[in-house]
Write a structure and sequence with these properties.
Length: about 160
């Protein structure tokens, strides 16, 4: 009985891999698109933060400060992002990439739980020494990192199989 249960479990485990392979065959550029759209988000944060005339702090400032369109004092800190349009465009590109199939279920669930717990801590102003900006990043970055890993996986899998044919 145990052996049969193990075989059934193995069949179920192979199904997502076949689904990814079929999806990848139909849409070979999706992997690179996920990877590029996710990496651009991190690069854009760095570029936009460096464009600030006052100091942008990873621990005190939030990611959304980078996309703020109006200069002013918010939550006790001066925010003025001269490249806010770049950051807002980056948010849109990343948001489009987030609408993807659920192939990596375990990491999806794990990163979602981490982000949810971090969001609750952020909401209650419990920053665990990370500061407001650091906790916000812990809320936002797990899914973006997931997109990078998924994009690399799909790209590598596609190009590896293309080379065999």
């Amino acid at each position: 009985m145990r052996c049969r249960d193990s075989l059934e479990t193995m069949k179920l485990m192979r199904k997502p891999a076949r689904m990814i392979q079929t999806f990848n065959d139909r849409y070979p550029l999706v992997g690179p698109a996920f990877w590029i759209s996710s990496v651009q988000y991190f690069i854009t944060q760095i570029v936009v933060a460096h464009a600030w005339t006052n100091h942008y702090s990873l621990s005190r400032n939030t990611i959304s400060d980078l996309g703020n369109t109006v200069c002013g004092v918010y939550s006790g800190r001066f925010v003025c992002s001269p490249l806010h349009s770049w950051m807002n465009a980056s948010f849109v590109v990343l948001g489009l990439a987030l609408d993807i199939p659920r192939a990596f279920r375990y990491y999806t669930i794990l990163s979602g739980l981490i982000a949810l717990i971090a969001l609750l801590l952020f909401y209650t102003h419990t920053y665990l020494g990370l500061g407001q900006g650091g906790m916000e990043r812990l809320t936002a970055h797990p899914q973006t990192i997931w997109l990078i890993v998924f994009g690399i996986y799909i790209s590598a899998n596609h190009f590896r199989r293309s080379a065999k044919n």
